[in-house]
Write a structure and sequence with these properties.
254 residues
């Protein structure tokens, strides 16, 4: 593989120095299995991801509930840093139906509402992982893809949870910038349905719930941002999320 002679020693030293060496090992194993593209390893991905989620929950089980969520957040950050999410999406784009099937099953572990599969304190902080899946799938599989739409819908639901990790750990401006593209997308979808020539106005309850969730998050973050910045120069700039949000809201009414 062309690796330097001491690469194994360097990796071992890094694993010993990290606060979560087992999480790094398991996340790297998931990434490697997904990247291999082999059916013999791909069929283990769902079980490996479920095992990783268990580790997220157990990693801080001796601590208070607030620390448990923090420990889960740290483990999910390792999942992203290891490249596991990227590798799973890459496998999902495979030409082989079996590879796509196994990758989708693994990704959907993060979409579960079953507490036995995704414990509440872990689900609370899955927004960064869901955001990454949404971003990657949107760029590759497209926004018509069923897995992408499921990820986007789950992201909207998780963001509305009290003390959602992404919302709690970022500034209102950053949250708005990250959420706005998906909110704009669901707005267009709902408005297209309402404006269709068909008298039935084809808009699903799922789409309406997603629209409501995204805009509830945006509303909360805008209210946090506005008192300090409502009269600042940023409001006068036309290339900011402030005007983007305004245009999204008024696009069909102006």
């Amino acid at each position: 593989l062309g690796l330097p002679p001491d690469s194994t020693l360097q990796l071992a030293a890094r694993l010993r120095s990290t606060p979560h060496p087992k999480a790094w090992q398991l996340a790297s194993h998931i990434a490697a299995n997904a990247a291999s593209g082999s059916a013999g390893t791909a069929n283990t991905l769902e079980d490996l991801v479920k095992e990783y989620i268990v580790w997220c929950d157990l990693g801080s089980e001796q601590n208070r509930s607030d620390r448990r969520a923090k420990g889960a957040e740290e483990h999910l950050d390792i999942f992203l840093q290891s490249g596991a999410a990227i590798a799973l999406v890459h496998l999902y784009l495979s030409d082989f139906s079996s590879s796509r099937f196994y990758a989708e099953r693994a990704i959907r572990c993060f979409l579960s509402t079953d507490p036995a599969t995704l414990p509440p304190n872990v689900r609370l902080v899955t927004a960064p992982v869901l955001l990454e899946f949404c971003r990657l799938l949107s760029l590759t599989a497209g926004n018509k893809d069923s897995l992408y739409k499921s990820c986007r819908h789950t992201l909207a639901s998780v963001l509305c949870l009290p003390l959602s990790g992404l919302v709690a750990s970022n500034s209102p401006t950053k949250v708005i910038e990250q959420v706005l593209p998906f909110a704009r997308e669901i707005v267009e979808l709902v408005l297209d349905g309402l404006g269709s020539e068909s008298k039935s106005m084809m808009v699903s309850r799922t789409d309406l719930d997603e629209l409501s969730n995204f805009f509830e998050v945006l509303r909360q973050q805008v209210l946090l941002w506005m008192p300090k910045n409502v009269y600042s120069r940023e409001c006068k700039r036309t290339n900011t999320w402030v005007w983007e949000l305004h245009c999204t809201k008024c696009r069909r009414t102006c």
